[in-house]
Please model this.
Amino acid sequence: MAITILDGPLGTELIDRGHCCPAPGWSANTLKDAPEAVAALHSEYAEAGATHHTANTFRTQPHVLGEDWAHWAKTAVRIAREAVMPDHLVLGSIAPIADCYRPDLSPPDALSIHTTLANVLAEAGVDIVLAETFPHPEEGLSAARAGIMTGRPTWLSLTAGPDADLMSPAVMQATAHRAGELGVSTILVNCVAATRIHPFLAAIAQVGLPFGVYANAGHVDEGLGWGAGDPETYADLAETWVAMGATLIGGCCGTAPAHIRALHQRFSD
Model:
């Protein structure tokens, strides 16, 4: 079974390297302040073995960056494209409108905002639209619908948050089923602590779509990431995910290029 290696996080890794990523712009701030750092990180993930790279568009949204938001979204896609190998794929990220860990703040009219960004990402030439880190089923489905309407392949990544308490496995499974009916081609789980992600992965494994995971490194004491953890231990957990049928594996908050290298070395055959 061929395993697709995804990249790792931009925001937490850029912060670890000394770059300022305050809310609400988060990692999008570095598009203005340190674009060379974004490009370098994309390149490092490619060198580590990732073949699918998420552009730094997580917070390039109209209500976050203002009237020139589309310029920065397109810039993020260009930076990613130029930093990786020609045969690698670039994904355009669409994030929750409010907060990844506050599903109670998801607006009822999210489709129009997500459609605006999805259209710009398609114009910029992304290979895949990735609606990611959604703990709210309806908003996640709205973002996925926005991606599908562009005609680009669309993936949906759901999250229960680092503490695994924002969405139940049953709700995640039901949302994944609905996403498949919409036309989403791949379902993922992200930003759940790697040590807590198993029941959520088991839930989406039953949907019948290709599925994958890019997990949060969890608490620093777990020894998986945050600059002090062992990438091989993360790869050990990834072995169990692949055994469940996951075919796309990467890293989320707290992981780094070393984790992607460990995954590539573990699954390169």
Remarks:
- DSSP finds eleven helices and eight strands in the chain.
- The chain has a mean pLDDT of 96.
- The chain has one domain: 4-267.
